[in-house]
Amino acid sequence: MQINGIVFDKDGTLFHFGETWNVWCEQIIRELSQGDVALREAISDAIDYDLYTCSFRPESLAIAGTTREIAQAIVSLIPNMKVTKLEALLNSRSTAAPLAEVTPLKAFLNRLTSSGIKVGVVTNDSEESALRQLKQVEVEDELSFIAGYNSGFGAKPNSGPLLAFAKAVTLPPAKIAIVGDSLHDMIAGRSAGMKTIAVLTGLADQDELAPHADVILGDISEIPAYLGLNDLAKLT
Predict the structure, then answer these.
(1) β-pair type (49-50, 55-56)
(2) Distances from the Cα of 186 to the Cα of 98, 157, 164, 191, 193, angstroms
(3) Cα–Cα distance between 70 and 91 in angstroms, integer?
(4) Non-local CB neighbours of 21 within 8 Å, separated by 6+ positions
(5) Which residues does 202 contact at the CB level (< 8 Å), separation at least 6?
(6) Using an 8 Å Cβ cutoff, are 196 and 226 in contact?
(7) CA distances, 17 to each of 21, 53, 138, 175, 214 (Å)
(8) Average pLDDT value for residue range 147-171
(9) Is 208 exposed, middle or buried (0-12, 13-18, 19+ CB in 10 A)?
(10) Are residues 165 and 120 in contact, defined by beta-carbon separation less than 8 angstroms?
(11) 3 φ, ψ (degrees, to nearest 5)
């Protein structure tokens, strides 16, 4: 597969979803409910978060949705708070989430960029959160493009942010692959005319992703071998 650019999803792709967000979500729910047990359960149900296992259910909108969509889902439960204020609060708090790298990201991304591949990140998290997290693991210098749902290009499954990456790196979509763990990622990639690489480090399973993916890998560490990066002729 001839690929000159790769755009990665963030959560569930570069970072393990559960290890990064499960405990963080429990803390946010506790903060918003302020000791009200019934409210705590209502917020959890609204975003399909299981309080007993401290994990998101596979159908949760929080897995691939934007922070605004999460805020809209629970704002009616939070006294005296508007969507914009709740969205800002969630975005602010999200920068403190623990980061569980799927593979050592700095070395992984450097291997791609050293091979001449342009790399970017498109996430349905906020741009602010994405920038802080990517800086925290010291990979921002490897990236040619970073966009969140509020960067002005739209949010996945719309193709807008993927096409913005293609424009930024001056590559045709057919020479680019999107790598992600959700249907939002795969649908956006197909709509943009890109190759689609699914990984199994999120909550979607292989049967769900297969109809929309050109290939399914266990995780992103398998990408260099899949692209044949030891054979430079495949990259030209």
Answers:
(1) antiparallel
(2) 26, 8, 16, 9, 11
(3) 11
(4) 11, 56, 62, 97
(5) 11, 12, 13, 17, 63, 180, 181, 182
(6) no
(7) 6, 15, 19, 28, 22
(8) 97
(9) middle
(10) yes
(11) -130, 125
Residue 159's contacts (CB-CB under 8 Å, 6 or more residues apart) are: 188, 189, 191, 192
Comparing 175 with 236, the larger pLDDT belongs to: 175
CA distance linking residue 142 with residue 144, whole number of Å: 7
Distances (CA, A) of 64 to 24, 45, 128, 180: 16, 17, 17, 10
Other beta carbons within 10 angstroms of residue 128's beta carbon come to 17
Coil, strand or helix at 216: strand
Amino acid, single-letter form, for residue 153: F
To which residue do tokens 């889902």 refer? 73
Q: What is the mean pLDDT of residues 206-226?
A: 96
Question: What pTM does this model have?
Answer: 0.88
What is the rounded distance in angstroms from the CA atom of residue 114 to the CA atom of residue 62?
34
Is the separation of the CB atoms in 147 and 122 below 8 Å? yes
**What would the mean pLDDT of 155-172 be, rounded to a whole number?**
98
Residues 6+ apart with CB under 8 A from 178: 6, 7, 8, 9, 122, 162, 185, 186, 188, 189, 192, 194, 195, 196, 197
Look at residue 2 in the predicted model and tell me its pLDDT. Answer: 85
Residues 115 and 229: beta-carbon distance below 8 Å: yes
Angle of helix 37-46 relative to helix 17-33, nearest 10 degrees, comes to: 140
Choose among 230, 224, 228, 226: nearest CA to 103: 224
Number of separate helices (H) and strands (E) present in the chain: 10, 8
Task: Provide the β-strand partners of residue 131.
Answer: none
